[in-house]
Amino acid sequence: MAETVVFRNAFLIDGNGGEPSPGATVVVEGEAIKDVLTQGGPPALPGAKVLDLRGKTLLPGLIDAHVHVGNIEAVHDRTAALPPAVYVLRATRNLETDLDLGFTTIRDAGGLDWGFRAAVDQGLIRGPRLFLSVTMLTQTGGHGDKRGIAREANVPRNSIGVFPEICDGPDEVRRSARQVLRRGADQIKIMADGGVASPSDRPGQWQYEVPELRAAVEVAQAAGTYVMAHCYGDRAIRNCLEAGVRSIEHGNLMGRETAELMAARGAFYVPTLTVFEVLAERGRGEGLDAFILEKLATVIEAGQQALEYAYRAGVKIASGTDIIGPFQYLKGRELALKAEVMTPMEAIVSATRTNAELIGWPDRLGTVEPGKLADLIVMDGNPLEDVGLFERGLEKVVLVMKQGRVMKDLLG
Ligand code: ZN
Ligand code: ZN
Questions:
Q1: How far is the CA of 249 from the centre of ligand 1 (A)?
Q2: Ligand 2 centroid vs 109 CA: distance in angstroms?
Q3: Mean pLDDT across 118-147
Q4: With CB atoms counted within 10 Å of each terminal CB, which end of the chain scores lower, N or C?
Q5: Which residues of 334-360 are buried (b: 16+ CB within 10 A; e: fewer)?
Q6: Which residues are registered as beta bridge partners of 63?
Q7: 101, 396 in Cβ contact below 8 A?
Q8: How many Å lie between the centroid of ligand 1 and the Cα of residue 236?
């Protein structure tokens, strides 16, 4: 018989954005949530394991919709040069860190291959549920093309054989999109704009034409999935919206009218505020060159403005961090940065219910409701009063349950 766990006396934030419920009881049976009782005592369930959460907050497992678990170093070539065993073990460490911070699901925006999901599913790695892009589609000289001026051969993203798909024209884009799906991608990641950490372009230099983007969208739709696109400026975002892209990433240079268009089209916006702040603080020490640091400065402050435009326009705002290099442990900061524009509750919803909708699992993840998978976290304290608790998640997230299994327990 499936094990039953009862959380009682919880300060419950259920992910739907309504008022929290003090003194709630949540019953987990097997891998799913069976009952949520906001008043009255807990039911008598003989044989159940009972956890008293007085003074603590129960939330849905967090979702990070834009990660690069496999970008071990901030500098691309350093990651690619790591010996395979070191690469795999450090990526594994990143996955464990995500889980320990309370992220029970992550969407990788390029780098991790299917083997990591198999290793998590087989219990070889203690990690979150993975939605993979495998690798990204990039035009020649685009954000994913790391050759720069001096090299001709395609440059690997890591030492275990993941290369970016450099493809131009609708036919090549179609083929590359099918390639990543063949290799186990859950969604297709495309580079539709220049970038910060790339050698040959700048944010705001839009990449790909609408027919190329549309080719990727059609391949994705045929397979029952969607496209997520790296974008900064208005033109790139508008191209993507016209082509039917579902998930717009970064968007730092977005204007008000583009935000309104995004809302009208029903696309999701995944601002990634943390990566810019963390790299501005620490990137120099990690070996980022002057060209990259200069580009970083052009997008960092605009990011908050873009979020505000999107928020006022009523865009569906999801949540990602885009953290690269050795800073995965800081990803909880994203909620605090968002809370400078949104309310703390809205920031929490973006990283739970809205992210679950974005990845296509709204009926299984994102909220604490009967019938959903039991992805739950317990925090010491109240994040509505101190949204900075998420950044200190290694210490403040005291219990992590993924699909009914306890993955971290500091309750003692
Ligand atoms: Zn990007
Ligand atoms: Zn990214």
A1: 7
A2: 6
A3: 97
A4: C
A5: bbbbbbebbebbbbbbbbbbbbbebbb
A6: 105
A7: no
A8: 12
